[in-house]
Design brief:
This protein is an alpha/beta fold. It has helices spanning about 1-25, 60, 65-70, 85-90, 100-110, 155-165, 180-190, 205-210, 220-230, 240-245, 250-265, 270-280, 285-290, 305-320, and strands spanning about 30-35, 40, 50-55, 75-80, 95-100, 115-125, 125-130, 145-150, 175, 195-200, 215-220, 235-240, 300. The strands form 4 sheets. A 6-stranded mixed β-sheet has the order 4-3-5-12-6-13, sandwiched between helices. The protein has a 3-stranded antiparallel β-sheet with strand order 10-7-11. The protein has a two-stranded antiparallel ribbon with strand order 1-2. Helix 6 crosses helix 9 and helix 6 (about 155-165) crosses helix 14 (about 305-320). The longest helix has 23 residues, at about 1-25. It is globular, with a radius of gyration of 26 Å. It starts with a helix and ends in a 17-residue tail after the last helix.
Length: about 325
Amino acid sequence: MKTVIKLLACLLALLLLALPLASCSEKPGDEETTPGGGDPVPTPDTDLPIRIQLLNGTTALGAAALIASDNEMSYEIEIQTAADKVTGTIVSGEADIAALPTNVAAKLYKANPDKIRLLAVNTLGVLYLLANGETVTDISSLANKTVYVPGAGSNPEYITKALVDAYGVANVTVDATSYPSPDELATAVASGNAKLAVLPEPKVTVVCTKNASVSVALDMTAAWEEKYGENTLAQGCLVVNKAFADAHPVELSRFLDDYKRSVETVKSMSDEAIAMIVDAKLLPSAGVAKNALPNCNLCFIEGEAMKTAMKVCYEKFYEADPKSILAVPDDAFYYVR
């Protein structure tokens, strides 16, 4: 009997010793163990298609390296020429992520609060006042003058109005209807038909290259930040379809990391980065890219810093013209990972 008891005790001891080994040999599945132990880190599904819509121009520049490189993730990137080609797809869920002007993002959220979330700011102020035959030294020099902006209901119109109001300049006519697009206004400035105009980079570089009489009279971002603080003028952003964000937080986090690296690559202005921009047809030539990039204010701001910057920006847009964003978005608008 004692022999049987001893045998059972030995068997039990062997079983207890085997349990830790068995647990160590279990398949990890979709999780990785962090170095040094700790909670496992989920790995993204690299086969999941992530559909991304970008606007041609400044708001797409930060994604140039993402477009050019072979990514582990399955990014499906399309570049559009107008915001209205993007807004419908992000609301419907045909697109998962999109780059948009910040005022358009706020309007979308007002109309579809359960569909849209703001991911990150990707472009700060890119507007400059160009003068052709006019002398302008500061915002107050615009009194009793007409300033042309490209298109009604756009960021340039609201930013210009907000600055005129902030500096208390009287009798400034902000004409947003004569030239409906940046290209049309750029042509008018270069030809001398528009004496004062607010344009974004890279149009500024293109116009100054075409006509040496055109000069950059004011940096609108510098004027804004003098009043409201650093990083408070945001013109471009990334938004995400809420259903996608809720269903795929791991993949979305990976996208944000990849996009941040892309922005850093583009901002380095290396020859490789310039080639990426031109190859993606985001800017017309290497020369334009090299001259325009330093003034494009590309960035990657997410989380609480994004919320702080955008709340100031949206409040000033709304004060200048309630139609600009329809309402100042609440905290639910902001996606914080």
